[in-house]
Amino acid sequence: MTDSTATPPNDPAGPWAIPVRRPLPGEDKPKGATSFPRKVWRLLVAIKDALALLFLLLFFALLFGLLAGRPNASLPVSQGALVVDFDGIVTEQPSDVDPLAALSGRDQLKEIRTRDVVHALETAATDKRVTSVVLDLDSFLGGGQVSLAEIGSAIDKVRARKKPVLAFATAYTTDSYQVAAHASEIWTDSVGGVAIAGPGGSRLYYKGLLDRLGVTAHIYRVGTFKSAVEPFLRSDQSPEAKQADMAYAGALWENWLTDVKKARPAAKIDAFIADTAGAVKAAGNDMSKASLDAGLVDKVGSRMAFNQRVTEISGAYDDSQPWAFNAIPLENWVAANPPSTSGAAIAVIPVVGEIIDGEAPNGMAGGDTVAQHILDAISDSGTKAVVLRVDSPGGSVLASEHIRQALLAAKAKKLPVVVSMANVAASGGYWISTPADRIFAEPETITGSIGVFGILPSFDQALAKIGVNADGIATTPLSGQPDILGGVNDEFNALAQASVEDIYARFTGLVAKSRKQPLEKIRTIAEGRVWAGGTARQIGLVDQFGGLPDALAAAAKLAKIDGAFYAKYYEDEPSEFSKMIASLSGAEEGEEAAAPRGWFGIAAMNRQLAERRLVQDMTLLTRAGSIQASCLDCRAFLPAVPRAADAKAKSVLGTLALLLK
After folding, report:
1. Rounded CA gap, 167 and 182, in Å?
2. Cβ count near 28 (within 10 Å)
3. Nearest alpha-carbon partner for 232 in 220, 223, 242
4. Is residue 308 in a domain?
5. 88 pairs with which residues across the strands?
6. Residue 224's beta-bridge partner residues?
7. CA atoms within 13 A on the CB side of 614
8. What does each C-alpha distance from 9 to 6, 13, 15 come to in angstroms?
9. Pairing outcome for strands 452-458 and 216-222
């Protein structure tokens, strides 16, 4: 019998080959044998499980970092110096952090809530745990003048309790010096100093560019002073707009000087501002010395020297490091000292930023969002009155009317409505103020701008430049209108202008009725003209001067509240996810790379802010939406922060750049 395992005669391995038994038909494969597709599948499953585990571990690591880094109201606050780090801008309502932008590493300017700073300073004034206050203004990018004045008043309350307030910045600008002037000691670095610019500056006019591109800007407006649309109609500023701008800018400048001179009576502010270059030259080209000689600063020294000075007052965290003083971060202090909630509730609804149609996150005023906050407030049986806190240059007429209707619902329930104007309450910001029983503003508030406009660009001439033409049929004069590619016809232009004039008549009528003044008088102070708060009170657009506390007190009086009351805010809170992303990406704490210090750093950041205002202009030109009641000039008096609409405008800029080539 032949052995079945014997080596075949032609086997090249010869008699030394290892015998291999092949499975018989119908017999299973050996356990160790696995097909190639199965091996690939198992590898993919293993990779999937590993990635899932990795992301799970990353999630818990991020969650731990968030919980570990967030201020905790239950943690005890140590004794020391309250540190108010003005790293970014001051605003009535910080905008939501865009998680995608934060993760991508794009600039995320830090925004500090005004009322948090004011409340922290006022509570610190009477708390023995706070032995001094430190104002870190090294990376401050500014804020509205009303907000800065409120912070200055809160600093005065700290000093009234004989507590030292020390300010430090490498270089002081107009905004940062308004805050620092209230400190008991002002420090600057030897390479820094003070340079006060005051309000004013240039803005861009696009008529020449639009003509070159062949873009026709169809403008529908009412109001001699409605200068929001001038950049698309002219190559320079009209005399009427320049006159109005000088009037309210001059009033703001006088208020700034009054505030600073009261805080620093011994400083030679007028002479220094009149000839800053001469003062610096007399000091051997040393700006810090010139600032010291003029009494604008008290000490010239490095940050380490400043910290050692704070240590002398508030003690050292580590005796081996005399520059490491006992510090209480602003966020921890705010978390540990929440505002009182005893007594009757007065609803406060912030309206901050541009008023737009639909819903919007914090930092912008969505008509639906704000209206829903008002309706939520008046649906609460505990609400005794409503205070609308306005800090807006206006925007969509339809959204403004939506907010006004919600306020009328509050009045229908016999609830008092009081408006508190912050830095800006113009155009649509004034439209929503008309139902108020009382309107409060500050002398520095910018308001008025009672006028409306609409902008619609057409590109028929631009397309013709590149050999593209539009043609078609029409069954009526309005068929296909507005035709932004083939051209807007006279019939549509007449209809659009009539619509704008109708809304303007409604606007002036609302103001006349709410202010109890003849329509003819309102028309003389309307036409889109902007007014400073002091003048606005004289002409009857504002009832009295005062901040939010005064508005709350008036609302309580109108509601006949006998006893204590508190402000209950109705606004959206950032999601926990966005807070976590902001915290871990550095958007909350501020990245060192994005923090400007010194004159050139601040100048570079101001350039970026100017670019954002350019984006806002392009957004206004290209926005598809309702007729606008907006004060474009007023935006220069609010911090320029990136918003969601910026991306769209940037794409438009790119398109215009391509056409220009």
Report:
1. 9
2. 7
3. 220
4. yes
5. 140
6. none
7. 15
8. 9, 10, 9
9. antiparallel
pLDDT tens by residue, 622-635: 664 568 888 877 87
For 205-250, the pLDDT digits (tens) are: 999 999 999 999 898 988 776 667 888 889 998 888 888 888 889 9
| Cα dihedral across residues 240, 246, 251, 256: positive or negative | positive
Neighbouring residues of 33: CB distance < 8 A, sequence distance ≥ 6: none
106: domain CATH number?
3.90.226.10
111 domain residue, yes or no: yes
Query: Is 479 part of a structural domain of the chain?
Result: no
**Catalytic residue among 139, 314, 427, 458, which?**
427
pLDDT, one tens digit per residue, over 539-548 is: 999 999 999 9
Nearest to 178 by CA among 138, 136, 142, 139: 142
Closest alpha carbon to 483 in 458, 453, 454: 458
Q: Which of 226, 384, 568, 579 is catalytic?
A: 226
Q: Which amino acid, residue 360?
A: A
Q: Which token pair is 503?
A: 């809304």
Query: Is 289 considered catalytic here?
Result: no
Number of domains in the chain: 1
C-alpha span between 632 and 620 (Å, rounded): 9
Look at residue 405 and tell me if it is in a domain.
Answer: no
Tell whether the torsion through CA atoms of 472, 473, 478 and 479 is positive or negative.
Answer: negative
Bridge partners for 135 per DSSP: 84, 167
Q: 237 or 551: which carries more pLDDT confidence?
A: 551
Tell me the C-alpha to C-alpha distance, in Å, between residue 370 and each of 103, 209, 568, 570: 29, 37, 15, 9
Residues of the domain holding 166: 75-202+257-336
**Cβ atoms within 10 Å of 424's Cβ, excluding its own:** 29
Strand 216-222: give its sheet, edge to edge.
Answer: 216-222, 452-458, 628-630, 394-396, 355-356, 365-366
* Catalytic-residue membership of 427: yes
Structure tokens at 453: 């406009």
Q: Which of 149-153, 317-321, 531-535, 644-648 has the lowest mean pLDDT?
A: 644-648
Burial class (CB in 10 A: 0-12, 13-18, 19+), 192: buried
**Cα 271 to Cα 294: distance, rounded to the nearest angstrom:** 8
